[in-house]
Amino acid sequence: MLALFFVPLIIINTGIVSSPWLLFLLYITSGLGMSGIGMGIMHDAIHGSYSKNKKLNKVLGLTFNLIGANATVWKIQHNVLHHTYPNIDGADDDINQPFFLRFSPNTKRLRLHRFQYLYVWFFYSLSTISWITAKDFVKITRFKNMGFLNKKNEFKKELGKVIGWKLLYFSYALILPLIMVPQAAWIVVLAFISMHLVTGLLISTVFQVAHIIPDTDFPMPDNKNKISGDWHAHQLVTTSNFSPRSKVFSWLIGGLNYQVEHHLFPNICHVHYRDISKIVEDTAREFGIPYHSKKTFIGAIADHTKMLRFLGRKNMLGA
């Protein structure tokens, strides 16, 4: 995945690419590698499950910084807020979306949400462009206000790192190609954007279809804004697997098709999810807890679309 991301960029930066179509192909190929890094390397590494070696996990977690995002911001958003409170409105940062998207039946519905199942894919495509530009700055400021990054000078240091890594990323992913590639600047910029459109659509879809579907629950928090009831049962009722039989697909997306196992055991490397999934499923059924799983990725996308359409038309589940 690292080679799939870097090799096309290296070829681009040599200046030997004169064909616009080849330029687009190389950038899009790099985008596939970027997706692989996000799902198959940094995701486990930041969870501390890629290796038993903590230093190696930290180093590999920085691959997220190499693709223009930020490991520290992601760890708070994903590891802390999403994994602790999946599908809890106001706590799960993955469902806290801009006003034009409604991912929970417990949030206010607007008239424009009726069409979100049609336009959401465009905004999914823009997600990594948002990451490399404004999102990390907005998130890190909000997380500071929430009480994170509260050690002496911690916020300033992390903000400096965010800026520094982004300058490094833009230097080799966009600025150098603008200098080296014998094409008009707008063609290079468009090819760069196409890379992110592919990456954003792939990553956003994989993550969202595991939680925003008709089968999963959207529980209300208790009066302390915490999960009401058993945490492990909460992970099962709010999460769904998809395409569990496809080994190739599972490898390509870093085992994220086994989201149930990942949410129960985020400290276990994804290469083991397939083996433990049967145990998890049998145990869940033994105790009468739902174990959600869709046979195919396409089926999961269809259910996700159905849920988005429902959320755009109804105020509450069952209403």
UniProtKB/TrEMBL annotation:
<dbReference type="InterPro" id="IPR005804">
    <property type="entry name" value="FA_desaturase_dom"/>
</dbReference>
<keyword id="KW-0812">Transmembrane</keyword>
<feature type="transmembrane region" description="Helical">
    <location>
        <begin position="118"/>
        <end position="138"/>
    </location>
</feature>
<feature type="transmembrane region" description="Helical">
    <location>
        <begin position="185"/>
        <end position="210"/>
    </location>
</feature>
<dbReference type="Pfam" id="PF00487">
    <property type="entry name" value="FA_desaturase"/>
</dbReference>
<protein>
    <submittedName>
        <fullName>Acyl-CoA desaturase</fullName>
    </submittedName>
</protein>
<keyword id="KW-1133">Transmembrane helix</keyword>
<feature type="domain" description="Fatty acid desaturase">
    <location>
        <begin position="20"/>
        <end position="294"/>
    </location>
</feature>
<dbReference type="InterPro" id="IPR012171">
    <property type="entry name" value="Fatty_acid_desaturase"/>
</dbReference>
<keyword id="KW-0472">Membrane</keyword>
<feature type="transmembrane region" description="Helical">
    <location>
        <begin position="159"/>
        <end position="179"/>
    </location>
</feature>
